[in-house]
Amino acid sequence: MKKIITLPLHFTDSLIKKIDGIIIGIENLSIGFASYETKESIVSKIKYIKNLKREVFVSLNKNIYNSDLEYLKDIINLIKDYDIDGIIYYDISIYNIVKSIDSNIPLYWNQEHLTTNYMTCNFWKNRGVVGTFLSSDITIDEILDIKKNVDMKYIVQIFGYVRMMASSRKLITNYLKHIGYDKSHKTYEIYENLSNKKYPIIEDGDDTITLSDKCINGIKHLELLEKSGIDYIFLDSLNIPNFESVIDSFNNNDISYFDDMEDYFLSRKTIYKVKR
């Protein structure tokens, strides 16, 4: 049976009870969250979610620099005894640290645009990783092919903006300063005149994220994903107003809420094999 997990805009009992699990971010080690836990707050947030009998994942989805390593080790040592359901990791240093301290924390590989094939999933499975957060660049058929070939746990995004690019720079601040303006908002839009599309761009602390022009919506694939044994369905709340209504619609299989959205890459092949 599928489980719905998300990273909520706000933590409330009513919202958390409507889903199966929460992904939380850590200050300076995560990117793309509405709020971040600190070294002082992370344990209480884990206990709060666990007391509501929901799963807890910690996402460490930033590039890790040498200056981050001691802080990263402190965070992993802090959370390893609190029965979290997984660390979703981007940088391989996180895998190495978790293994070096002989921790039983389940690891989920998530390198975004790289989690696209079953051979690399199998590589990580053979090294003790229990799951993969699959890329939003692949189709439903490719997702099912990966599931068929490698027996891991899988997280699949079927709602929310696609995170197209992340930069460890203040791109909005730097650009506006260059043209003589001050940054007054967290979120702006990039207009691309060739396609006549607007892409949300968000400055998140010292980092910047660019999103797709529209939301991905894969609600029509829910039944197929569930039948195939996909473990977790991910609903991304980033830049989504009234997100609790989205959760209600998924729980009720109410497709009418999403009439003006598409399933994008879930039905559109974008990755091709090189011909020899």
Please describe what this structure looks like.
- The chain is of the alpha/beta class.
- It has an 8-stranded parallel β-barrel.
- α4 (92-100) links the parallel β4 and β5.
- Helices cover 28% and strands 26% of the residues.
- The model has no long low-confidence stretch (mean pLDDT 90).
**SS-derived structural category:** alpha/beta
Could you name the CATH topology?
TIM Barrel
For the record, the count of structural domains works out to: 1
Tertiary shape:
globular
Strand content: 25-35%
Q: What is the mean pLDDT?
A: 90
Give the helix proportion (percent range). 25-40%
- Overall CATH class: Alpha Beta
- Spans of at least 5 consecutive residues whose pLDDT stays below 50 are none
Could you tell me the number of beta strands? Answer: 11
Terminal residue distance: 41 Å
Please compute the radius of gyration using only Cα atoms: 19 Å
By CATH, the superfamily comes out as: Phosphoenolpyruvate-binding domains
Outline:
By secondary structure, this protein is an alpha/beta fold. It has helices at 13-16, 42-51, 69-79, 92-100, 118-125, 140-149, 171-178, 222-228, 243-251, and strands at residues 3-7, 21-25, 55-60, 86-89, 107-109, 131-133, 153-167, 187-192, 197-204, 207-217, 232-236. It is globular.
